[in-house]
Amino acid sequence: MTDNTFFGKFPGFEPDPSAPVSNEFFRLARHMRWRPGSKRFSKMRAECFRSEFAVYFGNDASRLQNWQSLCLELGIRENIGSITQCRKKLSRVHVNIVDLIDGRRTGDEPPMFPSMKALRRYTRSMGKFFPKEEAKAEGFLKALLRKVL
């Protein structure tokens, strides 16, 4: 069986689809000998996280159905009739994007935070940062992006 995910592109690397994305990326980086902090490491980490988000949540930000699915995933149960309404609802959700991806990979629910302050504290303490430039470029991700630094 062919693995068409980001991790499947690297010969000799056996991905674990149920492992958290950060763990798998660091394992891949060791396998490929990418040094943390290097340009290659940073570029591949950004590509990995963007690609993994797209695998689980899609990347067509023009489809209302995709936005509604993301809202549902994050506990917004009401019927939302437009992308603008979805964006507004998501702007009030405080979730770590890395945890959101991991939730799909591991089957665990991502923790939701009552405030931006709580999300910021958690993200900093756990070091679970989604590459900002990738999030800004992607419609869904941009809706979830929060300033945590």
Keywords:
149 residues, mainly alpha, globular
* Helix amount: 55-70%
Our Rg estimate from Cα atoms comes to 16 Å
Number of strands: 0
Q: Output mean pLDDT.
A: 89
Low-confidence stretches: none
How many individual helices? 8
Order of helices and strands: HHHHHHHH
Q: What structural class is derived from the secondary structure elements? A: mainly alpha
Overall 3D shape: globular
Beta-strand percent range: under 5%
Cα end-to-end separation: 41 Å
* Biggest sheet features: none
Layout of helices and strands, plus pairs?
Elements: H1 21-32, H2 39-57, H3 64-73, H4 83-90, H5 97-106, H6 116-126, H7 132-137, H8 139-144
Helix pairs in contact: 1-2, 2-5, 3-4
Outline of the structure:
With 149 residues, the protein is mainly alpha-helical.
Describe this structure in words.
It is a single chain. This protein is mostly helical and 149 residues long. It has a domain at 19-58 and 92-144. It is built from eight helices and no strands. The chain has helices spanning 21-32, 39-57, 64-73, 83-90, 97-106, 116-126, 132-137, 139-144. Helix 1 (21-32) packs antiparallel against helix 2 and helix 3 packs parallel to helix 4 (83-90). The relative contact order is 0.14. The mean pLDDT is 89.
